[in-house]
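Continuing from the previous page...

OK, I double-checked the sequence for Aspartic proteinase PCS1 against my notes and this is the correct one:
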Amino acid sequence: MRACILCNSFQNPCFEFLSYLLLCAVIFCFLQPKLCSSQTATPPALVLPLKTQEIPSGSLPRSPNKLRFHQNVSLTVSLTVGNPPQNVSMVIDTGSELSWLHCNKTQNFSSIFDPTRSSSYSAIPCSSPTCTNRTQDFSIPASCDPNNLCHAILSYADASSSEGNLASDTFNLGTSDIPGLVFGCMDSVFSSNSDEDSKNTGLMGMNRGSLSFVSQMEFPKFSYCISGHDFSGLLLLGDTNFSSISPLNYTPLIQIPTPLPYFDRVAYTVQLEGIKVSEKLLPIPKSVFEPDHTGAGQTMVDSGTQFTFLLGPAYTALRNEFLNQTTGVLSVLDDPSFIFQGAMDLCYRVPLTRTTLPRLPTVSLLFQGAEMTVSGESILYRVPGQVVGNDSVYCFTFGNSDLLGVEAYVIGHHHQQNMWMEFDLQRSRIGLAQVQCDLESQRYGLRV
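Thanks. Re-ran it with the corrected sequence; updated structure tokens here:
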């Protein structure tokens, strides 16, 4: 209070001294703007075109907590890496942590990153805190190679693997250069179908782990929207004022602080509370949707998985009710030996002459505070190349996790079409809103 009284006069030397300090501060910040910026400042929002790409069966290995099936569609984004910049295409995966690129020129990949051509490339030594402290969520701990560089081995549930060194380089997205981003420069990728391995350069890890792309960038949130019309869309990195006809409904992210053997602590885990077929709520106890004492039974939102998979009791209840409501509408494929992607055992025969599907029941996934409704052509998926007599084969786009040996519910990107998906890392929640993603892409200035 006394300081305020002493400095309340324009003629007072105290006021002149404060004015002098203020002038010095303004000059200093003009000369050194980075030093005056807030340490909590976040990078500006980036809007990137997102597309789906058909990939050969088994072309991308799956992480240990992923499903061991072969999907045929991936979400990809294009960017450049290194100096001078090299064009790369990366699969967007909210279920993985470490971003990585194919770096071995001797392997038969259509797109690789060559670190020897980049002046900004830097391999990370195994003594670095990045190697010793930030790889703790890897399924196999990082180690030292003969050159004392940080070596990572990523093993996958389908017996595929990828290994190489951790490194850093400049990533360019849109007009923004991001120096020093940590990724895996992979020399060895083993796959059951190596001749047709990945038309993409690598994978962009987007989960909550410390080395994921979004964690390194310190984005407060990111969003994506996948069109159900032509499978284009957009990926928005950073904060934005989402304004659409439909408001976002939020569901909180679930975190269990105690390490559990079957709980992925860095996944985007939400609480599934129920399932409806049309307007009928299935009689499934809520305990079925809750993780048990081992962590098994979590519900993960995963852009790297194509379809949605439910644990046995929930899947059986859904399958039976959907089958009941489609009796007389569709002809069931009577072939017990046919299980699409090893987990989807409810399939139908549709005449090849039919151009559209009949009206089908909707399926709604009920979360705490939000709801995801799957309808229309997203309910059934036409199996490529599968014909029985004069009929094509369509399968129910929900599968049984138990048939895959996976102890989790997984919400895949097929059921996120025409859904604005916001991952709010700052407030630990996911926002959902049904929108027309092709229109949203145009609103953000992207051609679709």
